[in-house]
TrEMBL record:
Organism, scientific name: Plesiomonas shigelloides 302-73
Pfam families in the record: DUF2057
The protein's name in its UniProt record: UPF0319 protein PLESHI_01667
Top-level taxonomy: Bacteria, Pseudomonadati, Pseudomonadota, Gammaproteobacteria, Enterobacterales
InterPro entries documented for this protein: UPF0319
Signal peptide: 1-21
Keywords on record: Signal
Length: 229
């Protein structure tokens, strides 16, 4: 092989190597909904727990879901959708740390304070800006994307202006007339009370009902193949 060909091949390989990017890992109680304007792929139960952050300024949308105590019962706490923006360097490995969330009162406090921590691999706190994202109607993917696109066109605390045009183009759908006032719309949270000892079964039923028809069918096929004798 000629040296010139070998050099050309090495150059092409080096150009194809992806640039370093920061990364984010979330705990099991956190569901990532969007990263930098893009929907995070998810399965029946949880979203991807680890994502790369290619942009210097990143924006994430997530919510917290955790079983908490409510008197003598157990309740599935679902937080408001939280939007957060922050700067991260290429070598940082970030993690979201949640405060104590053991009771429904803890959940209510969290919805008011949004007091989570964003830390890097050295335990150093990374500053961020956060806000509650108001979503009109159901928490569908389309409504979430429209709400976040509208939010990024505003001057709100965690808005990232350079994501707004790209997100609007990607959506390719008209923004509802009332979307501009979405920030003033109260977010309706769903509370599910889990009673008795068979909490896992109730959780499966809850998440099955949240999934679309195709995901439900995939889960039924999986359950059939993995059913215990």
């Amino acid at each position: 092989m000629k040296l010139s060909h070998l050099y050309a091949g090495m150059l092409a390989l080096s150009c194809a190597t992806p640039a370093l990017a920061a990364s984010l890992t979330v705990p099991t109680d956190v569901e990532l909904l969007m990263v930098d304007g893009q929907k995070v792929p998810s399965g029946l139960l949880k979203s991807t727990p680890h994502v790369n952050l290619p942009n210097e300024t990143s924006q994430i949308l997530f919510r917290v879901e955790k079983i908490v105590r409510s008197g003598s019962d157990q309740t599935l706490f679902t937080s408001a959708p939280i939007v957060a923006s922050f700067d991260a360097s290429a070598d940082q490995k970030l993690t979201i740390e949640l405060p104590k969330l053991n009771t429904d009162s803890d959940g209510k406090r969290f919805n008011q304070s949004l007091d989570f921590r964003l830390v890097d691999q050295n335990g150093k706190t990374v500053p961020y800006k956060s806000d509650v994202l108001a979503v009109d109607g159901l928490m569908s993917s389309r409504n979430i994307q429209e709400a976040l696109a509208t939010y990024n066109h505003s001057s709100s605390a965690a808005a990232v202006a350079n994501l707004a045009p790209a997100m609007t183009a990607t959506l390719a759908v008209p923004v509802a007339a009332g979307a501009a006032t979405a920030a003033n719309t109260a977010v309706t949270q769903q509370t599910v009370t889990l009673q008795g000892e068979n909490v896992p079964e109730q959780m499966l039923q809850y998440w099955f009902q949240q999934a679309d028809a195709k995901t439900q069918q995939r889960f039924m096929n999986w359950a059939k193949d993995h059913a215990r004798p």
